[in-house]
Every structure is written in structure tokens, then in C-alpha cells.
Specification:
The complex is a heterodimer of chains A (105) and B (437). Helices cover 0% and strands 45% of the residues of chain A. Chain A has 105 residues and is an all-beta fold. The radius of gyration of chain A is 13 Å and the shape is globular. Chain A starts with a strand and ends with a strand. Chain B is α/β, with parallel strands linked by helices. Helix content of chain B is 21%, strand content 40%. In chain B, the strands form three sheets. In chain B, strands 4-3-7-10-12-14-16-18-20-22 form a ten-stranded mixed beta sheet. In chain B, strands 5, 6, 8, 9, 11, 13, 15, 17, 19 and 21 form a ten-stranded mixed beta sheet that branches. In chain B, a hairpin with a 2-residue loop joins β3 and β4 (98-104). The longest helix of chain B is centred in the C-terminal third of the chain and has 19 residues, at 397-415. The chains are: A mainly beta (105), B alpha/beta (437). Chains A and B meet through loops of A and loops of B.
Chain lengths: 105, 437
């Protein structure tokens, strides 16, 4: 299992905001919702679209290409045309810093 | 103390130093300057460009790479697959775009055949090369990678066969990379009227998991009644970025058999075009792809019928394992003048794991009304019944899958008329097949 990697400061991600990052050879989206942080692959499982450029509504992130929606808490695909979950990565906060552990599965 | 520059970055200063370091004909320097200007004007591909929509290059950082200026090593340790047991008419090897050695057999040189490293031939035979280089086939203004290649092209090989000369021994070119190196090789093959030749071209890394950058181009020019068999094997290390523009122009009653094998690279984005510009031109393309780990291979093919009564036949087969991905986007384009066209394209994908993904997008764009154009695509997993059948006869699961994979590729191997190429590809793929439950 990979280690936690420091990726940003808490203040870098505004509330209800998101940040696209490159962590260990992967593009991921870091999201800040209701004082919680989440991290998922920046990849729509339908056709590889950039989720980080999509619209965030509650815990749902919509792919800007075809509108597939994903639950950022567990990566689940909520609407067509996506049918498979996107990968979720673990996030932890230490002081002012945010750390992400890449899920290699 | 003065510092010695040992490499050139892909910046304005790097470009100026690159052109200043080269003793080249004026026309080539001008071509490079025009390309650099275009490169500076063009943007990197956008995520929503149709060609790039499935290929994410955000992690590609050009500033991590540079062209080596150090004297080349005398040999490369990269493993060559295609030349084993083949009697060659000529041989050319480069490492990080720097020529290591080249030779052409006297019997062919005496007949006017020109073969050698790109940098040598553009200097020694510029008058022959100038009308063709980036003028008849590959468009240096197509995108930012094409322009970057045109500005910095170095390494690779050039083959010129004069009118009516039939060469019955293959020419061979190997472009090798050190870990982290850059290759800007350009391959140019020109066959004059009625000429015939075979060329085997191969790319490989010294380190099989090594990184690096290839930004290259292949141009194949077949004048009327010429016949060319061209093989190119992409076998870079698994962390190499590979960007290539490859185009053939086939004139009246000429024929091209082009075999493409792609097995290496972290990410490959290739545009492969064939234009049939003279009546009766014939082209057959055999594509073999095998991917593993997180490799991403993206091939965009165009078979462009620009004259009547031409035939094109593209068959691409891909085997995918682990979390690898292929994108194949093929187009048959038929101009209004190209009546009696016979065009065919097919892409088959064999998925060896549940996490692999193959995107296959065949297309037709037909503006003539007397044509036969067909296309097809299949994607599927290994048939469990076939595995069961083989295991009942004493084979292990891995042996069974190796046989099924070999069988899957057999149709395209059968079309390859050069035994050594067929054997090398079959062995290379069989060695890579892993065991899956």
C-alpha cells in the first residue's frame, strides 16, 4: 500500500470547491464539502473525461462531457452513461496540511 | 570556468543552439525555422479535441527531456528483434537520435541506392531529399508535436531507391533510447518509378522499463509502380512517451504492405495515414498491438482514397492485459473522384483482464457513389470453453491462453510475408502473456 503524500494546504481548497492535482503518476480531484475532504480519480469511467472540470452539487460530481454523475464519498457511478465507480483515495488532515494516499487498485 | 553544454532543451535558446550546431543545407535550416515558428504559435492539444479526448497527456512534461549532444556510445545494449537471421542490404543504428553506425552494401550503392542515417543523407544528397522531406507526406503544421518534430528532427534513416531498381535484401534501422533520453528520429523512404524494396524499422530502449521521449515521423513515398514492404516495431521501454506522425503516399499502380507492431511505451499517440493518389494504388496495413500494466496506445488511422480504382485494407488486432488501454480510431475517406474504390478496415480486440479497456471507433466518409467500403470491429474476452478444452488435453492455463492469444493474432500474422518478422512478433507477444484466473 502506498504512503500518504502531502498534497496541499487546507486553505488551498475553498468550501464546496475542488482542486486538480498530480499525485504519484495519477491525476486526482481533491474536494472540500461540508468541512470534509474527499479525493477521487480525475477520470470519468465512461470515456475518461475530466471530472475535475465538472459541476459539483452536494456530494455529486458531474462529468462535463456526457453528464455522468459520481458520488465523491465512495466513487459510485450514480447515472448513465457511467456504470463503474471511479477510484477513491484516502485523505487525512494534519494541522494545516492535506495528505492523500493513492489507492492502487 | 566555462561550462560545456551536453544537451539541448526544447526552448527558443535550445532551438537556436541546435540549428547553430548543425552543418546543414540552407533549405533544411529554413524548414526548421518555419516549423519552430509554427510550434510557438500552436497550443498543446486540448482535452476536448476529438483526437485527444481519450488520451490524457497532462502528465507529459516536455521540459524533463533534452536532446543529447555528447558523442554517441559505440554500441547500444537495446535488444533488436527484427534483424535476427536476416541478410541485410543496409543497416543503420542510432542511440538517443545520434548515429552509431550505418552501412549499405556495395552492390546496392552501385545501383544508385542511397541508405543511411537521416543527418548524413540530408547533407550528402540534399538535392534528392529536398522535394520530399515534409512536403509530400507528413504535414509539419498538423499539430504541436508535428511542428516540434520538424524543428528538431534528427536521427532515423533515409532510403532512396532509383527508378526500376529492385532490391531483394531488406534494409534495417534501429532507433534506441537510453533511460530518460529523447529520440526525434525521422524515417523517409522514397521509391522511384518501378522500384521495389523492403525496410525493417525498429525502436527499442536499453532499459525495458526505462523512460524517455520519442517525437518522430515516418514518410513513405511510392512513385508509380513502386512496391514497398515496410515494417515498424515500436518496442520502447514502458515509461517512454511516444508521439508520431506516419504517412504513406502511394501513386499509380504502386503497392504498399505496411506492418505496424506496437508493444512498448507508457503512452503512444500515433497518426497513421495512407493516401492513394494514383489510379490503381494498393495498400495493405497490418497492425499488431499488445499492451500490459497501465500502457495507453492510441492509433488514429486514415486511408484516404484520392484516385479511382484504389484498394486499401487495414487490419488492426490488439491484445490487452492488466489495466492497459488502447484507442483505435479509423477512417476511410473517399474523394468524389475516387470511383471504384475498394476500402476495408477492421479492428479486433482481445481483453485478457477485466480492467483492460479498448475503444474502437471505425468511420467512413464517402463522397463517391461507386465504391465498396466496409468496416468492422470486435472486442471480447478469452473464451473459457477454449481454455477448458485445452486444459483437458494437458495444457496449463497459461499455455492455453498463450495458444488462444497466438490464434487471435494468426490472421494478421498470416498476412505478413516476411518470416523473420512474423516469428519475432509471435515470440515477443507469447513471452508477455501472463496467467489470469
Amino acid at each position: 500500500m502506498s504512503e500518504f503524500v502531502q498534497v496541499a494546504k487546507v486553505s488551498d481548497v475553498t468550501s464546496a470547491g475542488k482542486l486538480i492535482l498530480e499525485v504519484e503518476d495519477r491525476m486526482v480531484v481533491l474536494l472540500h464539502i461540508n468541512e470534509q475532504f474527499f479525493c477521487i480519480d480525475d477520470v470519468c469511467t465512461h470515456d475518461g473525461g475530466p471530472l475535475g472540470e465538472g459541476e459539483l452539487c452536494g456530494y455529486e460530481l458531474a462529468c462535463p462531457r456526457h453528464g455522468a454523475k459520481f458520488d465523491v464519498r465512495n466513487g459510485a457511478a450514480l447515472t448513465m452513461p457511467a456504470t463503474e465507480a471511479t477510484v477513491v483515495h484516502e485523505v487525512k488532515i494534519e494541522g494545516e496540511h492535506l495528505f492523500v494516499r493513492i489507492n492502487e487498485d | 570556468m566555462m561550462e560545456t553544454t551536453t544537451s539541448l532543451s526544447f526552448t527558443k535558446d535550445g532551438f537556436e543552439a541546435f540549428t547553430a550546431s548543425r552543418d546543414e543545407p540552407r533549405w533544411l535550416t529554413d524548414l526548421r525555422h518555419a516549423a519552430w515558428k509554427k510550434y510557438a504559435e500552436l497550443s498543446w492539444p486540448a482535452r476536448n479535441d476529438e483526437e485527444w479526448i481519450r488520451t490524457d497527456i497532462r502528465q507529459f512534461k516536455l521540459d524533463r527531456y533534452s536532446l543529447s549532444l555528447e558523442p554517441p556510445k559505440p554500441e547500444t545494449t537495446a535488444t533488436a528483434l527484427l534483424r535476427e537471421g536476416v541478410e541485410l542490404g543496409g543497416d543503420c543504428t542510432s542511440l538517443d537520435s545520434l548515429k552509431i553506425h550505418s552501412f549499405v552494401a556495395d552492390r546496392w550503392a552501385e545501383k544508385g541506392v542511397i541508405f543511411g542515417g537521416f543527418d548524413d543523407v540530408v547533407r550528402s544528397h540534399g538535392d534528392v531529399i529536398q522535394p520530399y522531406l515534409l512536403r509530400r507526406a507528413v504535414n509539419p503544421n498538423y499539430d504541436k508535436f508535428a511542428a516540434l518534430h520538424a524543428a528538431f528532427m534528427t536521427g532515423g534513416a533515409i532510403l532512396y531507391v532509383p527508378r526500376g531498381v529492385v532490391v531483394d535484401e531488406p534494409f534495417y534501422a534501429l532507433s534506441a533510447l537510453t533511460d530518460g533520453g529523447a529520440d526525434f528520429g525521422h524515417t523517409l523512404v522514397i521509391l522511384e518509378d518501378g522500384a521495389e524494396a523492403t525496410m525493417l524499422s525498429e525502436t527499442a530502449s536499453e532499459d525495458t522499463v526505462g523512460g524517455g521521449l520519442h517525437c518522430g515521423a515516418i514518410e513513405l513515398i511510392l512513385n508509380p509502380r513502386a512496391h514497398l514492404r515496410y515494417v515498424n516495431l515500436q518496442n520502447w521501454g514502458s515509461n517512454v512517451w511516444h508521439f508520431a506522425h506516419q504517412k504513406a503516399v502511394v501513386d499509380r499502380d504502386a503497392s504498399l504492405q505496411w506492418t505496424i507492431a506496437a508493444m512498448g511505451a507508457k503512452l503512444a499517440k500515433v497518426n497513421q495515414h495512407v493516401s492513394m493518389i494514383g489510379e490503381g494504388a494498393n495498400c495493405q496495413v497490418n497492425g499488431v498491438m499488445f499492451t500490459e500494466d497501465k500502457q495507453h496506445l492510441s492509433y488514429h488511422t486514415l486511408q484516404h482514397h484520392q484516385a479511382p480504382s484504389c484498394r486499401s485494407d487495414f487490419l488492426y488486432k490488439a491484445g490487452l492485459q492488466d489495466k492497459s488501454r488502447t484507442v483505435w480510431r479509423g477512417m476511410i475517406k473517399v474523394d468524389p473522384i475516387a470511383q471504384r474504390t475498394d476500402g476495408y478496415q477492421r479492428n479486433d480486440n482481445l481483453l485478457l483482464s477485466t480492467n483492460a479497456r479498448a475503444d474502437s471507433i471505425p468511420g467512413l466518409e464517402i463522397e463517391a457513389d461507386d465504391v465498396r467500403c466496409t468496416h468492422g470491429s470486435t472486442s471480447g474476452r478469452v473464451d473459457d470453453e477454449l481454455v477448458f478444452y485445452a486444459r483437458c488435453r494437458g495444457y496449463t492455463r497459461k499455455e492455453a491462453i498463450q495458444m488462444i492469444v497466438t490464434g487471435f493474432f494468426q490472421k494478421v500474422f498470416d498476412r505478413i510475408t516476411i518470416d523473420s518478422v512474423r516469428d519475432a512478433l509471435g515470440m515477443a507477444i507469447a513471452r508477455r502473456v501472463r496467467e489470469y484466473e
